[in-house]
Specification:
Layout lengths: L9 H6 L13 E2 L10 H13 L9 H16 L11 E4 L2 H12 L8 E5 L8 H4 L7 E5 L10 H7 L4 E7 L11 H10 L3 E5 L11 H4 L3 E5 L9 E5 L1 H4 L25 H6 L1 H15 L10 H29 L3 E2 L13 E5 L5 H10 L2 E2 L1 E3 L4 H6 L6 E5 L6 H11 L4
Parallel strand pairs: 1-11, 3-4, 3-5, 5-6, 6-7
Antiparallel strand pairs: 2-8, 7-8, 9-10, 10-13, 12-13
Helix pairs in contact: 2-11, 11-12, 12-15
Length: 417
């Protein structure tokens, strides 16, 4: 096997994304990746091909209908590798929010009135709203609250909340603002010790790491492919043994089809097919960095993705370290841990300045050709809990960003922080 390369080839990475060679975007820095990432050619080509040649009702016996079904099936076979899940454990849906609402409806019949669901106030509303609404159906909803000084969750607080009536615990893998990794295996052990189930929202962590639901030992895991370099879809992993207990949310005649049980409507055929391009992209990175001999015969798709993300981790740490160190030195208030290690946090940095208001910071960076955002980012409960009702500024990076782009951002922030 070819020796592991020293670092991520950022020029090769960026060459896969047409956005970086589009003239009107040539001088633009995209630092709002937590809201949605750019898309590589591998995804764009599949989406274009589907619309050009197979945009008909899929799964017909021949011609474009047959080809359309085969394109969708290819995605269903490839994409579970991004979770280390089995094919029959992954559902496609229009978004993580909608997938969570469907899951809540499927889970409710498995619980009795008075049973308890635990949610956090750190999560994006996608992993809060649907579960809180179950209180209207006779369940008790309890809140696992963040430390108001840091925005972080502490497992010992969950241990005090969880009890004999707890049936479900819902938590983010890494908050879209605090960005600090929650210890999911440790949480899973506590949850399962009480015979409860664990739902993990991975939307803000999946763009940065190879997800392994076996190691995490969660019962459900959700993420959005439009934030992991793909089309606008949501993925829902459901542990196979748990899926059998859920109430069917699809057409009655699909009740015995595992991949349709949590799909109440027809999927976006083209978008489903195009998600295969995410894995194609990861495998292109693997070939480039590890050589053509290090392919399927030597490494499974799961292992290839993991190898690529080992390189991504080091690069993303190099991106966030100077930015966080600059903000800390200037006295900015960072949400979550200020630790710059990728073993601790994602390269999503939410903060406020004591000198300049949020909107002025965002406007100044936009004038410098740098796209960031401000607000609550669908996590209003978190910004309220940490005493920042006006929200925060967020700079969110992924592996195709460069150190030079971070330097531009720091230069633009310098007179403001």
């Amino acid at each position: 096997m070819t020796a592991a390369p020293a670092s991520l080839d950022i020029d090769f990475v960026r060459a896969q994304f047409p956005a970086f060679t589009t003239p009107e975007l040539a001088d633009w820095v995209h630092f709002e990746n937590a809201g949605g990432s750019y898309v590589p050619s591998q995804v764009i080509d599949l989406l274009t091909k589907f619309y050009r040649t197979t945009k008909v009702q899929p799964y017909g016996p021949a011609g474009p209908a047959k080809a359309a079904g085969e394109a969708m099936d290819r995605a269903r076979q490839l994409v579970p590798a991004t979770l280390n899940a089995a094919i029959d454990e992954v559902h496609f849906g229009p978004s993580t929010s909608q997938n969570t609402y469907v899951l809540a409806r499927a889970l409710r019949p498995t619980m009795q009135d008075g049973d308890e669901v635990i949610v956090t106030n750190q999560d994006h509303e996608a992993n809060i709203g649907s579960w809180r609404r179950l209180a209207d159906t006779g369940l008790t909803v309890r809140e696992w609250s963040v430390d108001p000084d840091t925005g972080l969750l502490h497992t010992e607080d969950l241990a005090r909340l969880i009890g004999d009536r707890t049936r479900l615990v819902c938590v983010t893998h890494a908050s879209n603002l605090a960005a600090t990794i929650n210890p999911i295996p440790e949480i899973a052990e506590l949850v399962h010790r009480h015979d409860a189930l664990l739902v993990v929202d991975g939307v803000s962590w999946a763009p940065h790491a190879a997800i392994d639901v076996r190691r995490l030992d969660c019962d459900f895991y959700l993420y959005s492919t439009y934030k992991t370099y793909g089309p606008h879809q949501g993925l829902l992993y459901t542990r196979r043994s748990v899926l059998d207990r859920l109430e069917n949310q699809g057409h009655y005649f699909n009740a015995d089809r595992p991949t349709a049980k949590l799909t109440p409507a027809g999927p976006d055929h083209a978008a489903v097919a195009a998600t295969a391009g995410i894995v194609d992209y990861y495998q292109a990175l693997h070939r480039h960095h590890f050589g053509p001999s290090a392919q399927a015969a030597d490494r499974s798709p799961v292992d290839q993705i993991a190898a690529v993300y080992n390189l991504v981790a080091a690069h993303e740490e190099a991106l966030m370290t100077p930015l966080i160190e600059f903000l800390v030195a200037r006295g900015a208030d960072i949400v979550g841990s200020p630790d710059t290690s990728r073993s601790v946090r994602a390269p999503t940095v939410a903060f406020t300045s004591r000198r300049t208001d949020n909107a002025a910071i965002v406007e100044a960076l936009a004038a410098a050709g740098i796209g960031i955002g401000h607000g609550d980012f669908y996590a209003p409960r978190l910004v309220e809990a940490i005493g920042r009702p006006a929200g925060v500024v967020r700079i969110s990076m992924v592996h195709y960003n460069t150190v030079a782009e971070v330097d531009r951002a720091i230069e633009a922030l310098d007179p403001l922080i």
